[in-house]
């Protein structure tokens, strides 16, 4: 194949890891204008040419939608890479053929299952599949059928891979539970937005950004590439790009809290750190079902190596059982976990959570760049909290409350509600570490009064 293609100049930024991964499943959800489909098209054209025994299959829900989408995108990709002279695109049958070797890109649809499962190629092996607009595929079993179409040993240097691209319109779609709610070693996942498309014109960029204010629910899907909910979500403040962060070593002097929601059906327990500005970081998660109280307490104690100031829990754990005269709180205490009673005012509690989650603009203290942040942050390892908060919907009878069904997704957010309902104060900087590191103005920002500053200095 041609070796003079300058990939960075034609692909742009945001897709380096996508381009390099060889995992079985390569899954990309993205908003409008995030160039996910055009990048995928260029990858297939480039790599068919690079690997002389590789062939590819492109699939959509219905066959006749290919011509104006994937077929056109692959044709554009060949032109954009400067290799159109080496490719022949035919309409009957719908195929893209790399003429020097006879390798093919074949098009199929789920509306013709027989053709989908019976494909042959004349050169090499069918080793790569591109499933475009995967949100159209309603049944996960249909995807499993497609997955099974890649069979047999691969020639040396080749690998089996399914590339899945889509807009995440509905958060109940099987792609979410299969690929994004859990991490699997054979899956690569990526969320892209319009911000990684440096070739998007300013008019299109503005139309997307305007949705943040005119239609926040749609902006989450179109602008941020996040899963949407029909009718909207209760916490429209929640944004993955704002609230979910990479784990970092938490300073030892930050105050630590624990908070839990307990039931035999699920123990949702979180460790929370408070920084010197009063921001909360949910940094560790225990999310496990079928634990009796003694087992739950042992699991909590076993995962706690830090000093905890308070552990908040719902008031119903203080209810005494008639047969024993003991409450769940008593049993936790007997097993080494001291609980403090949190408020259980649902409406006010959810309003408190909204305030903690509310994004706001500020300046990066190091670069001076304007950024969007929030008072509540979640380490990305707290996967169930990240999964459930954006799925909560309003109660049909009380729009100020959260719907209690499906019940499984309420446990982790309830724990957050208990925490946000209680008073916490910013961590005070250790006085022994202050001298020589902070100016008087900075100490004032951290909450110290002038008379205290003099003592510290």
Automatic annotation (TrEMBL):
Source taxon at top rank: Bacteria
Domain Phage terminase large subunit N-terminal per the UniProt entry, residue ranges: 22-226
Gene3D superfamilies: 3.30.420.280, P-loop containing nucleotide triphosphate hydrolases
InterPro entries on file: P-loop_NTPase, Phage_terminase_lsu, Terminase_L_N, Viral_DNA_packaging_terminase
Pfam families recorded: Terminase_3
Name of the protein: PBSX family phage terminase large subunit
């Amino acid at each position: 194949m041609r070796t003079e293609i300058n990939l960075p100049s034609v692909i742009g930024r945001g897709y380096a890891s996508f381009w390099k991964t060889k995992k079985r499943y390569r899954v990309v959800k993205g908003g409008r204008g995030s160039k996910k489909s055009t990048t995928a098209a260029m990858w297939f054209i480039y790599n068919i040419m690079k690997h002389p025994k590789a062939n590819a299959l492109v699939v959509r829900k219905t066959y006749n939608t290919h011509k104006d989408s994937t077929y056109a995108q692959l044709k554009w990709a060949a032109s954009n890479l400067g290799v159109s002279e080496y490719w022949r695109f035919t309409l009957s049958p719908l195929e893209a053929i790399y003429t020097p070797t006879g390798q093919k890109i074949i098009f199929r649809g789920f509306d013709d299952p027989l053709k989908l499962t019976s494909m042959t190629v004349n050169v090499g092996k069918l080793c790569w599949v591109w499933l475009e607009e995967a949100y159209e595929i309603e049944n996960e079993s249909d995807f499993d059928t497609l997955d099974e179409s890649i069979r047999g040993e691969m020639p040396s240097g080749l690998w089996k891979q399914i590339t899945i691209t889509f807009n995440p319109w509905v958060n109940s779609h099987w792609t979410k539970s299969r690929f994004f709610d859990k991490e699997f070693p054979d899956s690569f996942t990526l969320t892209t937005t319009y911000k990684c498309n440096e070739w998007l014109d300013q008019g299109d960029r503005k139309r997307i950004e305007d949705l943040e204010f005119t239609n926040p629910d749609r902006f989450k899907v179109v602008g941020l590439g996040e899963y949407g909910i029909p009718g909207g979500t209760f916490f429209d403040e929640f944004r993955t790009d704002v609230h979910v962060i990479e784990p970092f070593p938490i300073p030892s002097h930050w105050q630590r809290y624990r908070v839990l929601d307990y039931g035999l059906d699920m123990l949702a327990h979180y460790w929370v750190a408070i920084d010197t500005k009063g921001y909360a970081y949910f940094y560790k998660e225990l999310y496990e079902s079928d634990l009796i109280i003694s087992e739950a307490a042992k699991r909590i104690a076993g995962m706690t190596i830090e000093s905890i100031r308070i552990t908040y829990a719902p008031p119903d754990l203080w209810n005494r059982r008639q047969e024993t005269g003991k409450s769940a709180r008593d049993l936790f205490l007997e097993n080494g976990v001291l609980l403090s009673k949190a408020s259980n005012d649902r409406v006010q509690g959810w309003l408190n959570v909204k305030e903690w989650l509310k994004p706001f603009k500020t300046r990066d203290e190091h670069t001076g760049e304007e950024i969007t942040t929030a008072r509540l942050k979640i380490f990305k390892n707290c996967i169930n909290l990240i999964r459930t908060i954006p799925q909560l919907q309003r109660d049909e009878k009380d729009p100020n409350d959260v719907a209690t069904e499906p019940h499984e997704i309420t446990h982790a957010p309830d724990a957050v509600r208990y925490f946000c309902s209680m008073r916490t104060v910013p961590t005070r900087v250790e006085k022994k570490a202050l001298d020589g590191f902070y100016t008087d103005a900075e100490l004032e920002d951290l909450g110290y009064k002038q008379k205290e500053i003099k003592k510290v200095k």
